[in-house]
Amino acid sequence: MSSSFQQDLPDLYEAGVVELQDGLDAGRFSAVISSRLISLELRSNLQGPELRALLKVSPVALKSAAELDEERRVSGKRSMLHGIPVLLKDNIATISPQHDCRLLCATWISTPDDAGVVKRLRKAGAIILGEQSQYVELAHFRGEVPSGCGSSSGSGVAASIGLATVTLGTETNGSITSPTSNNNIVGVKPTVGLTSRAGVIPIAAAQDTVGPMTRSVEDAAIVLSVIAAKIQRPPHAVQPSPVPDLHQSPGHQRLTGQAYRRARSSFP
């Protein structure tokens, strides 16, 4: 790889959605190049003894990236996620002849359709790179023994070490927030009903929700604005109408420079 080419590439471990999108818009690199390099890192993760954050890499990711590069060249990008690599928790369905959900003993032999959130990601031009582990044989991002904490641990570890710019997790009770905290990333547990749960293996219908797990607040806002959708509302869910664009919200920087207090106890 030439030194000039290397200079054109961002640090894929650190780059956010906006930085990648700026590079793609300027033609400094392509979605194929970024996806290929990330895929190499993903495959090395599968071979290592330490983290095991990833279950498998999509065999069609590079083909999708090439198609999205051509579409950008001809007609422009669809959204801020056009050409951006995404990893999914493995209880979120993608069209596949064999889709595993390695939570306890559950296995999907075949999934004929994408989950609702995956459909929205694909419509926005995102590249689905692969599936992430839940509990099984998963380590914390710092070493062999400590847990990543929660069934979205694969998403937390993958985001923390830069295996993908965007990851998705699901939460019943702490499965997004706990690995977010343990792995020093940004996660959003959306209000139940804000994101579709169609095609997601559930634990509790009244609590389950799908949310972004990323390295920055900005990236989380971009992703949530894409996967949030006006769907048939379950009776226990609350959903704003219309669904706001959190990334473009005029108040999204109002907390800058503010002072905060932290409650040390729930009781006086």
UniProtKB/TrEMBL annotation:
Natural source organism: Rhodocollybia butyracea
Superkingdom in the source lineage: Eukaryota
Amidase domain sequence ranges: 56-247
Annotated region (Disordered), positions in chain: 234-268
UniProt lineage: Eukaryota, Fungi, Dikarya, Basidiomycota, Agaricomycotina
Spans through the membrane: none
Protein name: Amidase signature domain-containing protein
Pfam families registered for this protein in UniProt: Amidase (PF01425)
InterPro entries on file: Amidase_dom (IPR023631), AS_sf (IPR036928)
